[in-house]
Amino acid sequence: MPETDRVPIPTLLRLACYYRALVEQEQRGARRLSSSEIAQLCGISATQVRKDFSFFGLGGKPGVGYDPAQLRGQIARVLKLDRPHQIVIVGAGRLGQALAAYGGFGAYNLQVSGVFDSDPAKIGKRIGGGLTIQDVKKLTPKTCPGKRCIGALTVPADQAQRAADTLFSVGIYRILNFTPAPIEAPAGAIVRTAAFTPEFAVLAFFDKETHYEHD
Amino acid sequence: MPETDRVPIPTLLRLACYYRALVEQEQRGARRLSSSEIAQLCGISATQVRKDFSFFGLGGKPGVGYDPAQLRGQIARVLKLDRPHQIVIVGAGRLGQALAAYGGFGAYNLQVSGVFDSDPAKIGKRIGGGLTIQDVKKLTPKTCPGKRCIGALTVPADQAQRAADTLFSVGIYRILNFTPAPIEAPAGAIVRTAAFTPEFAVLAFFDKETHYEHD
DNA sequence: AGTTGTGAAATGCTTCACAGCT
DNA sequence: AGCTGTGAAGCATTTCACAACT
Ligand SMILES: NC(=O)c1ccc[n+]([C@@H]2O[C@H](COP(=O)([O-])OP(=O)(O)OC[C@H]3O[C@@H](n4cnc5c(N)ncnc54)[C@H](O)[C@@H]3O)[C@@H](O)[C@H]2O)c1
Ligand SMILES: NC(=O)c1ccc[n+]([C@@H]2O[C@H](COP(=O)([O-])OP(=O)(O)OC[C@H]3O[C@@H](n4cnc5c(N)ncnc54)[C@H](O)[C@@H]3O)[C@@H](O)[C@H]2O)c1
After folding, report:
1. For A85-199, which CATH superfamily applies?
2. Is the dihedral of CA A35, A41, A45, A51 positive or negative?
3. Model ipTM?
4. pLDDT of residue A147
């Protein structure tokens, strides 16, 4: 197994995509899949697929292909999806609630286990997904005892660092940051960004009308 | 100006980040900013900031720094945020409605102009942000006449291609795909992916407990 | 003195080409 | 024959180092 911090992030992202495609194909009863079929299902080149597998020593049979169930299991072990992870959402606003109600996490062994907010008007309310919004002050080391928690930051940008610090202080060292604010993290913690407004800006850039009449 | 398809996407994403930081600093009355201050605000290295600017010929004053207002204007022109873009949401579910209600697009000259769904029970309902859900069948070339529309795909994965095709057929050639399904696009169209479940999977990978007891 | 702007080096990632297995 | 697995090449992006400017 390669050193965990020498692994290309793009490879991990694609592995998650293969995983999903394999779950789907397995359900459809597929028994064999070639790298180019997997590639097609994820919109990626077949070489790339094989390189990714090769990186972790995931094997198929030359001349034949891959066994979907087995490969899925191998990828799950690589991505640590063979064990459950809990998602703790901080910020029960529109985005936080959409996440909490999302039904697609189960297939990845991910489960939203708690939703926290600071607004007294929201605390105690039941939301989609069946959870009840809890006071962010009740976020303590006991929230995630011996479990594998991942924080989801869906607070306003100016609260992002504070909310992140709460998560760190409680032993949650993996955070997906949906706010546009950058997060300072202690050594050993890992914060990834999932801001999508910049993605819209990229699409704005590709506007075909190169000229625009200024006032 | 460099060829529009020779531009590094990471540069565009960072440009959007600088843009946001500049808007904020401008509001706080900042008159001068150095590349290292901008870097800090976005969690990026100062060299990277200057390289990005240099790519588009955006200039500051050596020994002094950058004028926030002027720089913001320049970045806006590069990203085409000097003109308004309309966001058309297809799929008025949890995520689509969260997007529709999001108040942060205005600063980028982006505006959600329509929300479409196929569910008769949803059509006609007023949602957060003030818009009314429309029948996806009413999505025609007139939806976006001479305007600059960007599609946001927030339908279930198995409807993604169909919904995308509808957008293409109506002249919307820029799409942000929030589903896990890959999209086949006609030449000239540009589809970007904003799936965040893979991001959670990346964080799962960085689980510190390397051993896990299997049953 | 302090900060920008940029070639050149280093690193990271993807694609190619093909040897090797079944 | 067909498909996998992987070094080597190629391309993209980041970082370095420093000259140039104010
Ligand atoms: N909604 C979107 O589509 C969208 C799009 C892009 C980015 N974002 C980003 O995602 C974040 C959340 O967006 P949203 O639209 O859900 O906002 P929102 O205002 O609907 O929700 C924010 C929630 O955080 C809670 N909160 C505030 N301070 C808190 C604290 N210190 N601790 C715990 N909870 C706190 C608020 O009570 C509120 O319920 C924002 O940073 C926004 O920039 C959202
Ligand atoms: N909610 C999340 O947090 C989340 C997280 C990760 C990925 N996603 C992805 O985002 C997408 C939307 O997720 P969601 O949670 O909002 O789902 P949702 O089920 O709440 O909403 C989907 C909406 O699309 C509508 N729809 C279905 N077919 C349509 C069609 N052909 N044309 C127009 N509208 C149609 C449905 O009526 C529904 O309102 C899914 O693909 C999901 O995988 C969502």
Report:
1. NAD(P)-binding Rossmann-like Domain (3.40.50.720)
2. negative
3. 0.97
4. 83
